[in-house]
């Protein structure tokens, strides 16, 4: 438990059975009436933002989330099977949690997963991955020097690459910006 005036950005709160990340917290004083704490929150499950007011000194449930390293094994039905590197247990992660990050998943990739109890709220890919080009457009003759072309990676993701990149090349990709970094 924490009191409302001790709420700081980054803290995770449990309100009405749902988890929220604190985006900001300010004390508001009004000429007539009691001061209050205005908090901007973001739901961990849905990423929806909201604002909530608390009385000064009100007790609020704060929680600690657990970060664990997971290694991707394979797709099992509609969910993704991972191995928890810390305790070597298998963990199923729903497609909703993975989202469009699935485009960069391949066997053996390690991710960071954020747990509350046994529930996974989010996963983070490594910022850079080395992936093979499985298909690419042909380079156009006479194209400008820094022109790009579309390429499909072994994971199915489609990105823009320089025109000298060929099928079978291994490249480094920034998973956050979904951009080509360099040929490996």
Structure report:
- This protein is an all-beta fold and 184 residues long.
- It folds into 3 domains: 2-63, SH3 type barrels (Roll), CATH 2.30.30.30; 66-124, Nucleic acid-binding proteins (OB fold (Dihydrolipoamide Acetyltransferase, E2P), Beta Barrel); 128-183, OB fold (Dihydrolipoamide Acetyltransferase, E2P) (Beta Barrel).
- Helix content is 2%, strand content 55%.
- The protein contains 1 helix and 16 strands.
- The strands form 3 sheets. Strands 1-6-2-3-4-5 form a 6-stranded antiparallel β-sheet, with no helix packed on it.
- Strand 13 and strand 14 form a beta hairpin.
- It is elongated and about 75 Å long.
- The relative contact order is 0.12.
- The model has no long low-confidence stretch (mean pLDDT 88).
